[in-house]
Amino acid sequence: MLRGRSLSVTSLSGLPQWEVEELPVQDLLLFEVAWEVTNKVGGIYTVIQTKARTTADEWGDNYFLIGPYFEQNMKTQVEQCEPVNDTIRKAMDTMNKHGCQVYFGRWLIEGSPYVVLFDIGYSAWNLDRWKGDLWEACSVGIPYHDREANDMLIFGSLTAWFLKEVTDHTKGKHIIAHFHEWQAGTGLILSRARKLPIATIFTTHATLLGRYLCAANIDFYNHLDKFNIDKEAGERQIYHRYCMERAAVHCAHVFTTVSEITAIEAEHMLRRKPDVITPNGLNVKKFSAVHEFQNLHAMYKARIQDFVRGHFYGHLDFDLEKTLFLFIAGRYEFSNKGADIFLESLSRLNFLLRMHKSDVTVVVFFIMPAKTNNFNVETLKGQAVRKQLWDTAHSMKEKFGKKLYDALLRGEIPDMNNILDRDDLTVMKRAIFSTQRQSLPPVTTHNMIDDSTDPILSTIRRIGLFNGRTDRVKVILHPEFLSSTSPLLPMDYEEFVRGCHLGVFPSYYEPWGYTPAECTVMGIPSVTTNLSGFGCFMQEHVADPTAYGIYIVDRRFRSLDDSCNQLAQFLYGFCKQSRRQRIIQRNRTERLSDLLDWRYLGRYYQHARHLTLSRAFPDKFHMEPTSPPTTEGFKYPRPSSVPPSPSGSQVSSPQSSDVEDEDEDERYDEEEEAERDRLNIKSPFSLGHVPHGKKKLHGEYKN
């Protein structure tokens, strides 16, 4: 029996939860298969790309990624080279001799993993034969007009062929093949149908049918057990894709999902309970200076303030030092991403701020790409006016400074009336007149093609948030992804996030949620929901998420109106925080980044590999005990110091933005609190799994 070194995993109480064997990676080959290897389409690309370094560090030259070949991606992302491993080289040579085009190289990302890429178009002449193979394997037929499904079949067939050649040429090594999403699923189906001696894992990052149903504004989570799955898939003309996904799920030795909420969904949609939950992580880079991220926040906030000065010229009657920047970003899925309840909550927040005569202003950015003609002329004019005013002020400063300098050299106190002459006053008056405008600041930075039917603009018209002088909430729709080369808002997404105060992502359908995770890693508080994987993960691991800057809106058990009220209260509580409280909260938020580091979350994938080997090769790999591990009992504690959850109670809500309570300084010891959090994250604990035993109802979540 092939064994590695025993690894004991303990709980916070110190009692062993289970024992597994460290994998002898020198005797194994790990292949990870995904359509988004070197090919950015969506969130799976981020998963694969960010996880590569941790996996490559662990597996070395025995780790390979398999994906599709695209010429442009190959030129810009891959350094082509010859495979060092004889098994890989022989498998590629065999396929190339039989009419395929297989490429090999290093993906130029952190970790520089090896990639094997298949040219889909070059092998398309085999499509009819491979359709027959799939029909024989699982009785699933693919329509000729579904080009995407046909491409996935070619990709899967090439993957299964390659894995067969690898198993034929490998000597004494066992193989793990990890397939991501339905696009890679046919490779798993064909490999199992041909009885290849490999251990297989299938991960769904979101069920295919779940995406379609939620996009149709159906009350998804309250009707999970009521859907006629075959009927729903057939009506949406994706029945064959659904069958491919479901067949892959049931063929895999181990089935995983990225979150507990997706596990519940998969159990109903795909009729199999996931074996392991594998949360998504990020590569967390710590600064050598502890509070460098706070300095970056101040620097990039100043750049956003410059944009706001130009956008609201002529209406800049609010204090930018008391202005908070909120944002929502992602695909333009109005309901799925929660833009609908966000806008409704902003209307209620505007009412609360005006009613309480707050001096805080909130500027909200919607970064969601949509069809546009070009930049809005009024928006470009605003930035031009701002730049002109800056140049005027700078020239006045230079002139004033020279006269002041000359007077001081002569030993005189300058006469302020003579410092500025009549021409200078004329220039300044003209500059002031240039800031006058007859219209309100625009709510969008671009000319929208479907202006009259655009969901965000239509809602803005309905709730009346037109950036008026009396509005305490201002709205800016930026229907393009951010870029440092933009003439309007020249900032990369990461820079923009660091400059904002709060990210708001009240999604209805979000299997994981990279946007709030990225905010957390950068030390920016965020709003998420208990219908997102990220929100469930934080609820499970943090005793008081709000104190750590993670606001979790209940969209599962509350009505839509109640969820809007809860979100509005979260936002209002955030607006009432003092600057010092926001700094404390950002410090706590940034400390949670350790929870999202692949060096920490990679252990979930490690557990899945142990499990698949023990199922595929039970006579050679052993895992004890067979009962699944859980994450129960591990939580970041509630901070003992103030401020606790700002909107959790009236007592903890700050009363003033300028005056601080002296007791707060005594009760808040950041170094002590940070050290306690560091010890918590280092404590080993049992890995995540959908627990056996009590069966969960489709709408139930363990709070």
Return the CATH topology of the largest domain. Rossmann fold
> From the 3D coordinates, which CATH architecture of the largest domain would you assign?
3-Layer(aba) Sandwich
Specify Rg, calculated over alpha carbons. Answer: 29 Å
Beta-strand residue percentage: 5-15%
Q: Report the CATH C-level class of the largest domain.
A: Alpha Beta
How would you characterize this protein structure?
This protein has a nine-stranded mixed sheet with strand order 5-6-7-4-3-8-9-10-11, sandwiched between helices. The model is unreliable at 1-20, 625-633, 644-666 and 683-703 (pLDDT under 50). The protein contains 24 helices and 19 strands. The chain has three domains: 28-283, Glycogen Phosphorylase B (Rossmann fold); 285-375 and 442-595, Glycogen Phosphorylase B (Rossmann fold, 3-Layer(aba) Sandwich), CATH 3.40.50.2000; 377-440. Helix 3 crosses helix 5 and helix 11 (292-311) crosses helix 17 (493-499). The protein is an alpha/beta fold. Helices cover 44% and strands 14% of the residues. 44% of the residues are buried. The chain is elongated and about 95 Å long. One of its GO terms (biological process) is glycogen biosynthetic process.
